[in-house]
Amino acid sequence: MAKFVIAGGRGFLGQALARSLAADGHEVVLLSRQAASADGLIRTVAWDGSTLGPWVAELDGARALVNFTGRSIVCLYTPEHRREIIGSRVDSVRVLEAALAGCGRPPSVWLQASAIGIYGDAGDRVCAESAPEGSGFTADVCRAWEGAFFGATDGPGPRRVALRIGVVLGRAGGALAPLAGLTRWFLGGAAGSGRQYISWVSLADLCAICRWAIDTPSARGRYNATAPGPVTNAAFMRTLRQALHRPWCPPAPAWAVRLAARLLLRVEPEFALAGRRCVPRRLLEEGFRFRDTDLAATLRGLLDQKKV
Ligand SMILES: NC(=O)c1ccc[n+]([C@@H]2O[C@H](COP(=O)([O-])OP(=O)(O)OC[C@H]3O[C@@H](n4cnc5c(N)ncnc54)[C@H](OP(=O)(O)O)[C@@H]3O)[C@@H](O)[C@H]2O)c1
């Protein structure tokens, strides 16, 4: 049995990956700003995400390091939020880098979260990993994030894999619960033109991708972590309505989405109005097999549990 360290591991993705690893008998250490605690094979160890401390000892002898740290981007991009969003990501990469430099038996692989926001608002252009990076704040965040991660890799060190993660669909967090809530209230229409793409991935597949990347010695570099079938916003909302047995609902005009996002929800409208059509070309070419490729079946599976 091996030991795994997941920085920022008490969030939506980290908890799921930790449970998946612990279910196979592995020891998992979560680095968190919350107080230290333990639950079976999963331990939480305190860090602040930016400075070295006793937590660095946990890296010694670990099989893999995973970094999921990052202040949520679901907010309005005020100057303060922008600083926190970029700072939490870049600082965590830098301090982990510094910790590894002093580690006697460092992990052999470092798996780092990034996001498909790197492609910007890409319309209906298909974005594989070789697609050009986009413009805008989220693309800038991902560039800084990946830049910090790959920037200092001239020496030997862990194999590095950055996952450009899409819209993760799971029960206990992420985008599905709010969208399902709106749809249940008969507000599940498309947003704006509905032509913007949603590149989704199930939480189960995201965990499987992480484990594949850890276990596959040839995996390195940047990977789109999205299911093979991205859909338009209109198609996504139609499928969600069907899964929840709701009738057709008119689309919300872009101006109404902007107003509601900024004034009521206090989030950037781009979450609903921008999109990118990503394909997991490298994962497919290098042998990863997705379990959840059908959106309707995936949504039915998640929503049937009555927890979303
Ligand atoms: N979920 C998605 O659909 C999705 C899509 C694309 C990319 N991603 C990226 O994948 C990563 C994990 O996503 P997630 O959904 O699991 O996010 P999450 O639930 O918000 O968890 C992120 C973790 O980062 C830590 N954190 C937040 N602000 C911090 C700060 N200022 N300084 C240090 N640590 C901070 C928190 O840990 P503590 O509070 O325990 O310290 C939190 O549990 C994130 O970087 C996210 O941007 C997620």
The global form is globular
Radius of gyration: 19 Å
Q: Describe the biggest sheet? A: 8 strands, mixed
Ligand catalogue: NADP nicotinamide-adenine-dinucleotide phosphate
- Mean pLDDT comes to 96
Distance between the termini: 33 Å
- Taking pLDDT < 50 over at least 5 consecutive residues as the criterion, the unreliable ranges are none
Helix content: 25-40%
Strand content: 15-25%
Structural class: alpha/beta
Notes on the protein architecture:
With 308 residues, the chain is an alpha/beta fold. The protein is 37% helix and 18% strand. The protein has ten helices and 14 strands. The strands form four sheets. Strands 3-4-2-1-5-6-8-12 form an eight-stranded mixed β-sheet, with helices on both faces. It is globular, with a radius of gyration of 19 Å. It starts with a strand and ends in a 5-residue tail after the last helix. The relative contact order is 0.13. The site of NADP nicotinamide-adenine-dinucleotide phosphate has 24 residues, from helix 1, helix 2, strand 6 and strand 9.
Quick synopsis:
The chain has helices at residues 12-23, 79-101, 137-151, 176-184, 203-215, 233-243, 254-265, 270-273, 281-285, 295-303, and strands spanning 3-7, 27-32, 37-39, 42-46, 64-67, 109-115, 126-127, 159-165, 167-169, 197-198, 200-202, 221-225, 231-232, 277-278. By secondary structure, the protein is an alpha/beta fold.
